[in-house]
Amino acid sequence: MKRLLQLTVFSLLVSATMALPALDRTKVAEDANDVAPLMIGQSAPDIILFSSDGTPFKLREKIAQKPTVLLFYRGGWCPFCNAQLSQIQDVEDELTDMGYQLLAISPDTPTALQKTSKDKELSYELISDYQLKATTQFGLAFHISEDYNSKVKSIGGKTARLAGDDKSTLPVPAVYIFDTEGMIQFQYANPNYKVRIKPELLLTAARLALEE
Q: Taking every annotated instance into account, which residue ranges of this chain make up the domain Thioredoxin (predicted)?
């Protein structure tokens, strides 16, 4: 209980102010400021995503293997995301030494993930959420305008759409820390995609999450 309280206070100190959670987190928000992310004390959804080689990836089974740092990013086309992926790479050894595994999820296809991993020289695992299951069930999904979608395409990016939806969807960038029971020990989500959690703050949260 003490550890959970510490992490809750810590999360409130470093997180952006978010809207009150909606009852249906799977509903796609019309603005990044209106998303309702899963919070500390809640559990990871039991969903199947895809590894960078295209094979099915069972999220809950993976999280059950060891404590997990889970990163949501918009795509390999986003320079702010690529900068964060590199920053996480820089602290991977410290997180691994603590006993963590690192996972990064985006709507990119497996093929795009392979390119990102190679270009950024990443040693941790990138996961494809091109069907937007994780993005929606974590409460991070929001619609983007056609103008913004055109800008993404102009820099070689590609966004995803839910079946039957006429608008493209992106995740609000976020970082979660899970225990092996799949419970969220720490959460940071910021609707301003230009602002990401600092590596030193992530390391502090990771250490707190392991304290009994």
A: 38-211
